[in-house]
Predict the structure.
Amino acid sequence: MSLKPYQRKASKGTVQIKNSNGRLQLAFTFAKKRHYLSLGFDDTPQHRKLAEMRAREIELDMLSGNFDQSLQKYKPQPVLNISAPDRPIEKVPTLIEIWTSYLEDKASSLKITTKGYHKSFTKLFDRIGDIPLLNSLEVKKALEKITTVPQTKRALTQLNAACEWAKRHKLIDSMPYEGMAKDLPQYVYQVDPKPNAFTEQKREEVIKAFRNHKGNWNGRGYTGHSYAHYASFVEGLFLIGCRPSEAIGLQWKNVTEDCEKIHFTGSIAMAEGIPTRVDGSKNNKKRDFPCSKRLQQLLQSVRPDKPDPEALVFPSPKGKVINYNNFSNNAWNRVVDPIQPRTTPYSCRDTFITTQVLKGVPIAIIARWCDTSVAEIEKRYLDFLALQEIKPID
């Protein structure tokens, strides 16, 4: 048996793909023992992709301490393709193999925050075990046992996308997860789509509460943290209507010297617990936002004489990036819940859009300001406002 030119000796902890008499074989060493695993595939470009997926699975198991020394986990499992009865029995990749290959193929086009989102599903799929890809009902039941219904719904949506990719690349012939997510209960935002906005009066109460916050009063004095530092950040959220991650990532180089205009170029989000700058908006766009007089005055009040262009406009009390989750779960909940419960900092965006609609600003302009669509504003905001204002006729 001779090796092809690209079949070099594998480094430690890696799996080598070989051609053995026209058939694909995996070769690797574990615990000083050499293993050879025949996959039963002819050496074709498509089967090479399957072999690479199986090789990566074995490498991951060796690294994580989950290697199956019996090799049963890695041996090909025959699956009958019932949609094409005249074709021979083919080997079908596992769920993890398809998911891993799908992510690797998409990696170059995804934002780091999206990669972090996908990683949560990788952990979830690892937990349900080695279930065959085509056994979609068993996968669904396994997910429902270890996570919530909304997360199961999201996982099935992701698997369907991975299968669409695999079918395009002729790795599978069917779509086992198609329509499954739609059969599960709707998300909260679908059941109750109305905006969670403040009135202008409540908005001012929230801003004032942050500005005057001194800690927790115990009858003799204030204890704990004062959240007054965040007053400018909260007021900015209300007056700009951007996503919180965009306000958190706003730098002085994005604000004109006279503070009359903001140029949004990206945001800061948490990726695996690390603040990460992301270029472009959620919709991969950059946009200009004209500041109102009040917003202009706010920015001028917090602007240093000669600001570092890279410095944050709304930093944390220690001058670092505001951690959205910490701010939302602590500062926001403690200060805002007594005024209007069951809101989040994202409600500031709802408030801005609702206020601008009520004041007669053209919807197309608001959509550009807020990086959303006219259809979304009409569906989510106008319908809600109409129901609030229109009354039955006697």
